[in-house]
Design a protein that fits this description.
By secondary structure, this protein is of the alpha+beta class. The chain contains one helix and three strands. The chain has a three-stranded antiparallel β-sheet with strand order 2-1-3, with no helix packed on it. Strand 1 and strand 2 form a beta hairpin. The chain binds zinc ion (ZN).
């Protein structure tokens, strides 16, 4: 899993492949020349998921 941060909307986007055309799924900005970061921190993802769930609950 690779991650690039969009220079325009600053949202992270993810791809299983480092090479090839890479457009930001949020704003369509061309991230092909941005440096891809390896993203294998599953624990961090889990923590973000927990945060998302608790935020969703507090909105109800
Ligand atoms: Zn973007």
């Amino acid at each position: 899993m690779f991650r690039k941060n969009c220079g325009q909307c600053h949202k992270p986007s993810f791809s299983s492949c480092e090479s090839g055309e890479w457009l930001c799924p949020t704003c369509g900005y061309d991230l092909t020349d941005e440096k891809a970061m390896k993203d294998e921190n599953k624990q961090k993802h889990r923590r973000q998921m927990v945060l998302y769930v608790s935020l969703t609950k507090s909105m109800r």
